[in-house]
Write a structure and sequence with these properties.
Elements lengths: L3 E5 L5 H14 L5 E5 L3 H7 L7 H9 L2 E4 L14 H8 L4 E7 L12 E7 L9 E3 L5 E3 L5 H18 L3 E6 L7 H13 L6 E2 L2 E2 H10 L7 E5 L1 H13 L8 E5 L4 E5 L16 H13 L3 H17 L13 H12 L1
Parallel strand pairs: 1-2, 1-3, 3-13, 5-11, 8-9, 8-10, 8-11
Antiparallel strand pairs: 4-5, 4-12, 6-7, 12-13
Helix pairs in contact: 1-9, 1-11, 5-6, 7-8, 9-10, 10-11
């Protein structure tokens, strides 16, 4: 029986990127049934309500094996709904937000070749969005850290290292200041570490690693960078600059029985409809989803073809120093698979 995946095309450049991803997966011979559904700022502006995700989409997510989410816009300001990604992560307990960060051949590498994976807790921390007004002058944001999710994300990080044959997990924290929250996170990392005695754990303060990633990023090659929600949101964005473009960074949100795949970048509304932006992150997030759904060969074909097109450098987009349109790069990837 074929697997089913819900597809949210998203806002801004989302629809054209997701169409490119779907074309590539079809060319690779996928048997996954892709089912389109609505979510995001454009839908919300037209329909209103307290969520960026309609009930019909929630129902569909419950019935599918995975979800693909194009970039969506999250409205700002008090009282506006929380982001599509955060809502889905919390509903399905997708505690592991994972971003492989590896230099592609023939691309800008501002500080040399890098190869590591950023693993971010995806359901709690400051992203619970709980803020309190104490007085007209004082506002507080609540950072929720649980032993359960700290343990879950730590185990995911050690398992990811093991899968890749790597030996190092790098927990990132600020426990000298946030003694309870970061302290608890670190305690759970250490407990899980006991089950992986052949692995090394390198603890880093958030401010120090931000510096070290610029000073000597190769030090972290073949390691898993691990942190709580907001810290790793910031650090993984810094890491994306090390491969030259966030348009190359694909990501997954993984829980026990469900997963959501997405490009790491935003919806870039100023480029919407211009056939301009880099499709790689979206296409490779789709390829990763095929792998998750059991289509290993199709997934590998997409990764290989994409890497070959990037290495050739003839059909790459502006952010990679090329002049190809989004559609031209997509067509080149499809042609490589044939």
């Amino acid at each position: 029986m074929s697997k089913k995946a819900a597809v949210i095309k998203g806002d801004g450049v989302g629809p054209e990127l997701v169409d490119a991803m779907l074309a590539v997966t079809q060319a690779a011979g996928t048997n996954v049934e892709f089912i389109p559904c609505e979510a995001g700022a454009a839908w919300w502006e037209a329909n209103g309500g307290d969520s960026l995700i309609p009930k019909e989409t929630w129902d569909l997510l419950d019935e599918t094996d995975a979800c693909f989410k194009g970039p969506t816009t999250t409205p700002g300001g008090a009282g506006s709904p929380r982001s599509v990604a955060v809502s889905i992560r919390q509903k399905f307990n997708l505690y592991a937000n994972v971003r492989p960060t590896k230099t592609f051949p023939n691309t800008a590498k501002p500080l040399g070749d890098v190869d590591f994976v950023c693993v971010r807790e995806g359901t709690e921390g400051l992203y619970i969005g709980e803020e309190v007004k104490l007085t007209d002058d004082v506002y507080i944001a609540i950072r929720k850290i649980t032993r359960t999710q700290s343990s879950n994300i730590a185990r995911y990080a050690f398992e990811e290292a093991k899968r890749r044959g790597w030996k190092t997990v790098v927990p990132i924290h600020k426990s000298n200041i946030l003694k309870l929250t970061c302290g608890t996170f670190l305690e759970e990392v250490e407990k899980v570490h006991q089950d992986y005695p052949d692995m090394e754990v390198w603890e880093y303060h958030i401010d120090n690693i931000a510096q070290q990633l610029i000073k000597n990023p190769q030090m972290f090659n073949e390691s898993i960078l691990l942190s709580t929600n907001l810290f790793m949101d910031v650090i993984s964005e810094e890491c994306s600059a090390l491969v030259g473009s966030i348009g190359l960074i694909y990501s997954a949100n993984i829980g026990e029985g469900y997963a959501m795949f997405e490009p790491a970048h935003g919806s870039a509304p100023k480029y919407a409809g211009l056939d301009k932006v880099n499709p790689v992150a979206t296409i490779l997030a789709g390829a990763w989803m095929l792998d998750y759904l059991g289509e290993k060969e199709q997934s590998k074909a997409i990764f290989d073809a994409t890497e070959a097109v990037i290495a050739e450098g003839k059909h790459t987009t502006y952010d990679m120093g090329g002049s190809a349109k989004l559609s031209e790069m997509t067509d080149a990837i499809i042609a490589k698979m044939k």
